[in-house]
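FAQ: What does the model actually see?

It sees only this:
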Amino acid sequence: MDPITILGAVAASAQLAGTTAQFSFQLYRFYCDVKKAPTKSKELCNEVSELATVMESLARTIKIVEESSDNVIIDVISDDSLQKYAQFLNELSSRILVNKNDIKKKLKWPLSTKDNETLIAKIERQKSTFNLALQAANLKLDSTHTYFS
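And it is asked to produce this:
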């Protein structure tokens, strides 16, 4: 991965971490406001929240690796993975966002139980991908510090 791509991965992961955290908060607030959210809705909120935590850790770690004085080239996550995740997050967000003036939609959970289950599975896959990237970044960071110590 060239240095420009590294900077892009750092910026993209940081931006996606923030977006995920914000979305997690909005989703949870919406869940609390809806009286009859279907089964698995709370689990969906929890999975998004956990994913936000992983993304924040990944963004911090990639930044640390990128800033290390050892000039290690980081190739722990592909731009394609980050782009696909951004697209997934945008699609999910568009399904959840409700116009403030549409009271009827504000009172109804926008996803079915089946939708919740499908989304939970996708989020779990995303979380696994980003956890592996986080582990790879941490290994690179540890090995670099060990090598240059």
